[in-house]
Specification:
Blueprint lengths: L3 H15 L4 E6 L5 E3 L3 H8 L4 E7 L2 E6 L2 E6 L5 E6 L8 E7 L3 E6 L6 E6 L23 H9 L5 H6 L9 H11 L12 H20 L40 E5 L2 E5 L7
Parallel strand pairs: 2-9
Antiparallel strand pairs: 1-7, 3-4, 4-5, 5-9, 6-8, 7-8, 10-11
Helix pairs in contact: 1-6, 5-6
Length: 275
C-alpha cells in the first residue's frame, strides 16, 4: 500500500497535471468505489462543472479540491491516477474517469478495486470519516517527541503495530515503520511503554528523517507503485531492511531476519535491534 512518501509524490505530480481543469462529466464503471454520497448519480452531478483548484494530502489519503467540494481518495493497494487524451481507450482496470472540458481525462485505475472515494462539501472533509480520527502529520508542529512519548506511554502494544496506528501518527506503513525502527535501533516487538526517553527521541527523529528522505526521492517503488506521470520512486535503493530478508545488514553485516509482528511481515537486524 502506498505510504506517505508515495502519496505525497502522487499529490505533487497530479497537481501539476490537473490544476485548473474543469470537469465536464464523470464515468463510473465501479460504483462501489464511491462511498459518499451513496448514490453515484449524486457524486457525478455534484462534480459536473467544478474546477480542480488544489490537490492535498492527509496521511495516506489524497484530497482533490474543486470550487465547492473535497474529494477524499484512498489508493489502497493498487490505485493509480493518470491523465490521458480523451481519444485513448481505457483499459479494463480503469474504473472512474473524470472527463475535462479540454478533452483530457483523469483516470483512476485499480486492479484490486480496493480504492475508495468520499465527496464532501469543502470544509467538512476533516471532520468526517475517513479523516476525522487521524493523528498528526509527521512533519507538523504537533508531532513532537513529547507527543509521541505521551502516546506510547499509554500502550502495551508492540512498537510496530503502535506506529502503524494512524491515530498516533499518519502516513506510516510497513516499509517506513521497519526502516525507522532499524535506524533508531529498536526491536519491532518492544512494547511501546517500555521505550526510554532517549529511544523515543531517536525514533521520533528517524520517523521524520526517513519519511523526508523518501519524499525527496519520490517514494519507494515496491510492487507496482508509480506516480501520476508514470515515474518510479528511488528510495528503495536506500532501504536498510524492508524486503532484504537473509541479506547482510548494511551496518553490521549480520544476516537480516523476518518475522510477523501484529500480523505484518517485519524485517529487522537481530544484532542492531536487540530485544
Amino acid at each position: 500500500m502506498p505510504e506517505l512518501p508515495e502519496v505525497e509524490t502522487v499529490r505533487v505530480t497530479l497537481k501539476s497535471l490537473v490544476l485548473g481543469k474543469q470537469i465536464k462529466d464523470i464515468t463510473v464503471h465501479w460504483p462501489k468505489m464511491v462511498k459518499h454520497p451513496v448514490e453515484t448519480e449524486q457524486f457525478v452531478e455534484a462534480l459536473k462543472g467544478e474546477t480542480i483548484v488544489d490537490v492535498g494530502r492527509r496521511g495516506k489519503f489524497l484530497i482533490l479540491y474543486t470550487d465547492h467540494f473535497a474529494l477524499v481518495s484512498h489508493l489502497r493497494m493498487e490505485g493509480k491516477y493518470s491523465v490521458y487524451h480523451g481519444d485513448e481507450l481505457p483499459d479494463k482496470h480503469t474504473h472512474i474517469i473524470f472527463h475535462f472540458t479540454d478533452e483530457s481525462e483523469l483516470r483512476y485505475k485499480d486492479v484490486r478495486k480496493f480504492g475508495t472515494m468520499h465527496l464532501f462539501k469543502k470544509g467538512e472533509e476533516l471532520d468526517l470519516d475517513p479523516l476525522k480520527d487521524l493523528g498528526p502529520e509527521p512533519f507538523s508542529e504537533i508531532f513532537t517527541q513529547e507527543f509521541l512519548s505521551a502516546k506510547l506511554a499509554k500502550t502495551s502494544r508492540k512498537i510496530k503495530p503502535a506506529l502503524l496506528d494512524q491515530k498516533i501518527v499518519v502516513g506510516l506503513g510497513n516499509i517506513y515503520v521497519d526502516e525507522a525502527l532499524f535506524r533508531a535501533g529498536i526491536h519491532p516487538e518492544r512494547p511501546g511503554f517500555d521505550l526510554s526517553d532517549e529511544e523515543i527521541g531517536r525514533l521520533h527523529h528517524e520517523i521524520v528523517a526517513t519519511l523526508s528522505a523518501a519524499v525527496e526521492k519520490g517514494g519507494s517503488t515496491i510492487r507496482s507503485y508509480i506516480n501520476s506521470q508514470g515515474q518510479i520512486g528511488m528510495f528503495q535503493l536506500d532501504l536498510f531492511v524492508y524486503g532484504r530478508k537473509g541479506e547482510a545488514c548494511k551496518k553490521c553485516g549480520f544476516s537480516l531476519e523476518k518475522t510477523v509482528v501484529g500480523g505484518r511481515g517485519t524485517t529487522y537486524c537481530p544484532q542492531c535491534q536487540k530485544l
